[in-house]
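Please annotate this fold before class:
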Amino acid sequence: MWFLQADTALKLFAAGILWTALAALAGRFGAQAKLNRFLVLVDIALIALISPGLAAFYVVYTLATYGLTCLAPAAARRKEAGRRSGQVLFVVLNILCVTPFLYLRASAVWTALPVLLTLVGFSYNMLKAVDGVYFAYYTGERLDLVMYANYMLFFPVLTAGPIMRYRDFVRCMDSPAPITGERLVTNVKRLIRGYFKKVVVLSLVSILLSRLAALPGHVWLSVLVCLVSYLLLWLDMSGYADIAIALGGCMGFTVAENFKHPLRAASFTQFWRNWHVSLTDWIREHIFVVLNGRRLNRYQGALIGFGTMMVMNFWHGMSLTYLADGLLMGTLLAVENLTGISTVNARKVKKSYLFFRCAVVTLLFAFDTIFYTLSHDELMNVLHGFVHL
C-alpha cells in the first residue's frame, strides 16, 4: 500500500506533526476549531506531493460532488411536496457520486476500457460523497464548502478508512479534542503498533502462511492454514485502522473504531458489527435500512443481511471470488435472521455454549479468508487437505 512506502510515510508523519503542533498552539488561544478549517490546505498539499494527478482528481471530484450536495435539499423539498421527481433526483445524485467508481470496476472487468487514472483510496471517498448527499437530503441543510472539502480530503483516512460520517466529522471539526501529552502518548503508541502490525508481524505471518499452504494436505493442517489466514487479514486491515485512528487522534480528531473484538462474536450478525464496522454500518444505513425502514421483521432482516454482504463484496471487486463470498456470507446472515439466532446474550447462556458459537463463527470466517489470501495452487492444496483425515 502507498502509505507503507518510506517516502510517503515520512510525508504523512510530517503533515501529522505539523498539524498537531499548530493545533496545540491554537488550542492555547481557544482557536483550535477555527484553525481546523484550514486543514484542507495541508490535505491538498500532501496529496499533491505524493501524486499531482491524484490531487487534481480529488479537488475536481470534491467540487463536483459538493455541487451535488447543494441539489439534495431541493430534492427533499420536492419529496415533501409529494412530487416523485424529488426521490428520482436523490437517486440520480447518488449515481453521479459513484460513477467514477463504477467506471473503475468496469475497467477491471472489461480490459478494453482505458484506465484513466489510478485513484488511490477512491472507493472510500466515494462513500463519503454519498454520505454528504444523504446528510443534505435528510436534513435539508446546505453543506459548507470548506467543511465538506475538509471532510472529503482528510488525509488520515484518505486511502482505506475507517469511513467517517459527515455529521461526526463536523462534530470533530467544531469541537476538537485538546492536544495533551497523555493523548499524544496514547496515539503515538497506537501508531507504532499499527506500523509494527503492517510491516513486521504481517510479513512474518505471510511467510508462515505460504509455507504452511505448500505442505502436503491434511485436514488439521488445512484448519491451521485457515486460522493463520484469518490472522493475516486481521493484521492487514486492523493495522491500517490503528494508523488512521492514531494519526487523527494526534491531530485532535476522533476517528471511529473499525474492529471491536471480532473473536467474541457468537453469530455472523454480531461478527459484522465488530469487523470492518464502518463499512458494514455504512451499507446497512445508506442502502437497505433507508429503503425498508427501521422496524424490520425477520424476513426483511434476512434480506438486508444477504443484500449487505452482496453489496460489500461487489464494492471490494467484481469477480467470481467476491460473488461466491457474498453468497456464502449473505446466506449465513439470512439464515441467522430467519431462525432467530442472530444474537446471543453472553449473560444468559452457558460459557461452553458461547465458546462453541464463537468458535464456529471464527472457523467459518477463517475458511472464507483463504479465498483472498492464497494463490490458486495454494488454495487447491488446502481445499484438497480437508478431505484427507
Observations:
- The two ends are 39 Å apart (CA to CA).
- The chain has a mean pLDDT of 89.
- Residues 289 and 295 are 9 Å apart (CA to CA).
